[in-house]
């Protein structure tokens, strides 16, 4: 969960829009990094971001992370209604996110 004030989340979302063209990529990545999860369902991220993003926006953010290789989407076993599950992948992007969070004004923190 984001323990930071809303202004910190807004700052991260603004930077995400500039970098990725999507305001939730960095917040999703930050939540995954700080919470220590390796595998997530979309609903996990929704709870982690405390309702600041809806399901379609989180799916878009996870798809963008998939495109850059930071996560990979796991097979759904041929079941269309199965939850979408993403696994964190070894990728330098995570070093960027960690560095960004450490050096952000006020040190954006994410509670587990």
Walk me through this protein's architecture.
Helix 2 packs across helix 5 (93-103) and helix 3 (42-48) crosses helix 4 (55-67). The protein is mainly alpha-helical. The chain is built from five helices and three strands. The protein is globular, with a radius of gyration of 13 Å. The mean pLDDT is 87. It has helices at residues 6-20, 25-35, 42-48, 55-67, 93-103; strands at residues 39-41, 71-73, 85-88.
- Envelope shape: globular
By helix and strand content, what is the structural category?
Answer: mainly alpha
Q: How many DSSP-defined strands?
A: 3
Radius of gyration: 13 Å
Largest sheet properties: 3 strands, antiparallel
**Adjacency order of strands in the biggest sheet:** 1-3-2
Share in β-strands:
5-15%
End-to-end Cα distance, whole Å, is 6 Å
Series of H and E elements = HHEHHEEH
- Count of helical stretches: 5
Task: Give the helix level as a range of percent.
Answer: 40-55%
Instruction: Detail the poorly predicted runs.
Output: none
Give the mean pLDDT. 87
How are the elements arranged and paired?
Elements: H1 6-20, H2 25-35, E1 39-41, H3 42-48, H4 55-67, E2 71-73, E3 85-88, H5 93-103
Antiparallel strand pairs: 1-3, 2-3
């Amino acid at each position: 969960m984001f323990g930071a004030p809303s202004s910190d989340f807004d700052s991260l979302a603004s930077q995400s829009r500039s970098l990725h063209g999507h305001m939730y990529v960095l917040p999703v990545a930050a939540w995954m990094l700080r919470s220590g999860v390796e595998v997530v369902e979309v609903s996990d991220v929704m709870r982690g971001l405390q309702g600041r993003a809806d399901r379609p926006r989180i799916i878009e953010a996870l798809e963008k992370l998939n495109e850059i290789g930071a996560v990979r989407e796991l097979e759904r076993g041929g079941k269309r209604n199965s939850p979408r599950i993403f696994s964190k992948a070894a990728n330098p992007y995570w070093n960027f996110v960690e560095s960004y969070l450490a050096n952000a004004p006020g040190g954006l923190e994410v509670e587990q």
